[in-house]
């Protein structure tokens, strides 16, 4: 397997020095011979080396440097004299492109080119300049480089000043984007593109299809009513909290927290002015039912809020146990089910309100938010768009895209079999070499002290784990979701890549 990463270890830097010597002393006579047969670049401490491996052997490299003056500046003067101003906003120089002789094939050069495109684009450079050897002019041109000044150097080592801009790399980058393998917990990559629809949301046909979608959602959730909105899970939670504000303007409630999204739910509740008290049991820790009951015995709380599937740490919180408490103390239980709905079978019968979305475990287009209700809400002081009784009264008060409704209806036909699919995918993750934690089959959490380096290697090779959020970065955590359509094939390739990445750490 050919794959790429950022050089980080002493062994990799020694291999770079050896390949430098082999290429730029023995093959291209730029430097003097030495008995160690190692050539350390004069800008070594400023270079970022992107290297290519064949399994565990380093076979190719290229160096990025953005400290001025560039090497090419010393040959032709500042490159700004030759290039447009917008191209020069954030420049870097590519140097030391080299491949071992017995690996000079299309696959290695493609991997190097791919790494160059991904790295320079992701870092935000507006362009890369390079002194390209004349013997490889065709290769550089195919990659999108163009010559911008006269050739320099000696007859034995002649170079072309060339530049690669973001604009010139657009076509190649689009092809790369299509090849990416993603493991995000949403949005979901669509197997079939959405077809724009001109069916009016006021038509009888649309009303029939909307009723079918709502019926399917309620059947899957074992809920009595559902109100769809165009928006995100955060919007769904705001609608639920706004309704609670109307129903309990002065009464107190509890919010249970053991992760990022429980804390977000608490913050939203505070913004609504709800009289809320927080029980925070710590990141990923289970709720203590006895502790919660002790709170309920002291104060006349009227409702409990919690996140059912806490995505941030792959924790499934105890709906059944909390439901029994709510029934015992005659209080309302409300849940954020955004990451659990569609991933496991469960009943919302005991929930006063619950929220979900279309673009998570259901596995379809992002854009519809759902508020499930045990009883029809009858009054609300919330703004009109979040006013749940208004949706009951008007049925379709605002525009709902027909293509979204159609997509949700289609994906509901995959249940209950999809539950088994997600379960098998999670078993594949747990049976791999990765040391993950997960309590429900939507997302697995993986912690490693060198996670930033691992994620960079994955991204250079087109594998995108969920790891960019601040709450994940600060804990050295990445997550792998099971909900993307090509999981089986993609995870097999990811597992192979990670086998080699982990060996080089």
TrEMBL record:
Keyword Transferase: yes
Swiss-Prot/TrEMBL cofactor(s): pyridoxal 5'-phosphate
InterPro entries per the UniProt record, alphabetical: Acyl_CoA_acyltransferase, Aminotrans_V_dom, FeeM_cat, GNAT_dom, PyrdxlP-dep_Trfase, PyrdxlP-dep_Trfase_major, PyrdxlP-dep_Trfase_small
This protein's record includes keyword Transferase: yes
Keywords: Aminotransferase, Pyridoxal phosphate, Transferase
Lineage of the species this protein comes from: Bacteria, Bacillati, Bacillota, Bacilli, Bacillales
Name of protein: Serine-pyruvate aminotransferase/archaeal aspartate aminotransferase
PROSITE patterns, sorted: GNAT
Gene3D superfamilies: 3.40.630.30, Aspartate Aminotransferase, domain 1, Type I PLP-dependent aspartate aminotransferase-like (Major domain)
GO terms, molecular function: acyltransferase activity, transferring groups other than amino-acyl groups; transaminase activity
Domain N-acetyltransferase, first and last residues per copy: 4-167
